[in-house]
Amino acid sequence: MKENLYNYILGIADNSLILGQRLGELCGHGPTLETDIACTNISLDLFGQVRSYFQYAAKIAGDKRTEDDIAMLRKEREYKNVLLVEQPNTNFAYTIGRQFLFDAYHLAFLAELQKSTDLTLSAIANKCIKEVSYHERFSSDWVKRLGDGTEESNQKMQEAINDLWTYTDELFHQTEADKVMVSEGVGVDVTKLKLNYYKRVNDLLQVADLEIPESKYFQKGGKEGVHTEHLGYLLSELQYMQRAYPNMEW
Amino acid sequence: MTSTEQNIDEKLIPILEEVSDPEIPVLSIMDMGVVRSAVIINEIVKVEITPTYSGCPAMDVIGDDIKKALKDAGYDSEIDLILHPAWTTDWITPRGRKALEDYGIAAPLDAEADIDVLLNGKRIVKCTNCGSQNTRLVSQFGSTACKAQFQCDDCQEPFDYFKCLK
Questions:
Q1: ipTM over cut 0.85
Q2: DSSP element (H, E) containing B151
Q3: Domain extent listing, chain B
Q4: Are strands B44-49 and B7-8 parallel, antiparallel or unpaired?
Q5: What confidence score (pLDDT) does residue B123 get?
């Protein structure tokens, strides 16, 4: 099995899986019907993307593993998503802040992944980027609306950005699998995305009448499987059916 | 690599045209542009379909429906889901666009106009009920991932707009 490629794919897909699950929690609980539908539609897009990645990963694994096994049967430390996407919904400003901070990265990442020498990955990226550009439009539009809205919405949006800021730097950390995949022309060198990312984010924050956080202290660990306390709870819900009724299908 | 051209055996076209999108029953999958190839190899029909959106739950049903339609016509078949080249709303045929409009879903505008209506509040989407362009965006996401929700300010009718995907 191509261990590095397998791990590399999981590193990409786990971000979408965990964020998709977080957004799915809002089904029936969004602040308004329209935003509820938007969040769950984005969730559906992300789950669809995850299926493409995991089907490919299962093929590479070459054993009896299926896409569902990869999604449902790993332990917490085996998930490689960044800490940002596992942060709880807290309130709508957090949901939107987390979404925009991830979308801005996701869009830039997929633009590069389209150039991968791995034809399956480039095809998936080519498909996903069309959907993600809609996500980014939605989330950036809401950051502006909340930031440039009422005094209270501005304050809540600012709090969310301040709290989530500490998780942004990790997006640009390289794992061992990353380094090998970049050297083979398969992977994206995320360190090169950092400059433009912060430019895009800072520009939007300014337009939205929000302050750019000054904190230089950043959290990391998700990519290595060391997560915040929130992931365990999320996984217990995500995996409940497969753990309670092993191998069930419907 | 696969090209953007379709490769469909003429004998199979009438059969495939009978299969419709489960979410939009008036629209055949051929007019939707999701069937990329259908050829008979050793008496088995090999069909390649491509998803509109990655998470589109209709794809599994469409695959099953194609199998059934071909079986009824006496063919065994294999269905493959392909991702490349990625589906675009440009592949919806003129007949498909008309079917959408008749069903109450405004057909996609070009990419630039799409941004204008979804982000900049421009009123150019035509109401499928009365034809007025005095329409406004209610929600960027509608009943399915491919649609946005609009409302007409003249006749008050709410309707879906099929978003441009390029």
A1: no
A2: strand B147-152
A3: 7-91, 104-162
A4: unpaired
A5: 94
